[in-house]
Amino acid sequence: MTLDAGSNPHHSPNPALQGSQPRYVQLAQTLLNEIESGHYPVGSQLPTEFELCEQFGVSRSTAREAVKRLVQLGLVVRQPRVGTTVRARTATTGYRQSMADVSDLYQYATETTLVIESRATVQIDAEQAQSLEATAGETWLNLHGRRHARTPSGEPAAPICVTELWLHPAFRSIQGIQGALQGAVHAAIEQQFGELITEVEQEIRAVALNKADAEVLGAPAGSPGLWVRRRYRNRMGQLVELATSIHPADRFSYTTVLRREWGVGGKGDAA
Prior knowledge:
By secondary structure, the protein is of the alpha+beta class. The chain has two domains: 15-86, Arc Repressor Mutant, subunit A, CATH 1.10.10.10; 95-255, Chorismate lyase-like (Chorismate lyase, 3-Layer(aba) Sandwich).
């Protein structure tokens, strides 16, 4: 049986869920409708993947993909050993990233599209060298672009950020980094050069969008933004890639889960 999410003439499908309507999109639309109608109020739990499979006669992968789309729309949040909790009644137009380790950055890259708009080798000056932990006069690869979230149908949405990347001179001949990218740049470095990223340092701070960035992002100049800088390091701790992104405040949110190891750091532990 095929789900008909658009059969109600008074409730048209959310634009973020329109497309060729594969099963996971139909299921996501149905769950979205039920969240918006209050069937699943904010703070309540969605059925588990197993329960969704039973209720809708779909595979585990279909149920998982449908819930992932709701996560991307900012409607629900998934937590280990807790389940899927409804966090909003209406979908957002941005991207919500949840990260626990380096591998989650690959997921971020595959769930969004980075459009490279310029590529140049740059002989860095003293100020740039300080940020890049390098020596003035070195020639690094500099990339500029915009990153877009993708709708469940695979189409790019409005840009969620402008991004600048710097790649170490050892990797400046990297191939395939142009136009629309559906994977991580650091993954391409690993694949082409045999390098291994073992650590990512992340710094986040609030900023006001300057006029140039605001124009590219279609946001008001001076409006709140989120500045995110990531330093990708290899096994020797050397900087391989520096990525700086600036997001409008309403198009990106970030969550992380901290777990306590019981017996570590509690009262009575040795100093």
